[in-house]
Amino acid sequence: MQLEQLLETIPEYARDLKVNMGTVLRQTELTPRQAWGTAVSCAMACRNPQLLEAVIEEASKHLDETAMFAAKGAAAVMGMNNVFFRFRHLSSNERYAEMPARLRMQMVARHGSDPVDFELWCLAVSAINACGTCVDAHEKVLKEKGVGEETILAAVRIASTIHGLAAVVG
Fold first, then answer.
1. Which of the residues 42, 46, 122, 134 is marked catalytic?
2. What stretch of H or E contains 1?
3. Alpha helix (H) ranges present in 25-170?
4. What is the tens place of the pLDDT at every residue in 8-53?
5. Does the annotation count 131 as an active-site position?
6. What average pLDDT does the segment 145-168 reach?
7. What's the CA dihedral at 77, 83, 84, 85 to 10 degrees?
8. How far is residue 131 from each of residues 12, 66, 82, 135, 144, measured CA to CA in Å?
9. Mean pLDDT over residues 150-154, rounded?
10. Which helix (H) or strand (E) holds 147?
């Protein structure tokens, strides 16, 4: 199903999500590649197959193979990292913070896409997965790379809208 068709099925009580989806993907703070990569990563993180299929179909018009691979990779690696690092943060046992993760994270170094885009996608997924440690880490890297707060918040707007849609689609 195409994204536009899917949005037409949104119930009236969730109309704000439908309207927001139309605007958050066209924010001037993000390039189309950043916006659509964020949408793909977030749709994967939200685990709604119908929404994911529609987002990927539309995103394929805006992303090359490398960016699509990296966006999916960001969702995959953050799906793992967010659980691990959120556990470390939430646990009162301080020893966990001293122990190595011992998890393979090659995607972070070898995604093949623009590093700023990949960091935005990781940040957005981390926001969905409520991992404060990862949100802080990715925001810090983005700011070090010269990305402004408006751009960062634009990616989080996409994450929040996709997350809301995932709850009402299907």
1. 134
2. none
3. 32-46, 49-59, 65-90, 95-98, 106-110, 115-128, 132-144, 149-168
4. 999 999 999 999 999 999 999 999 999 999 999 999 999 999 999 9
5. yes
6. 98
7. 100
8. 31, 26, 5, 6, 20
9. 98
10. none
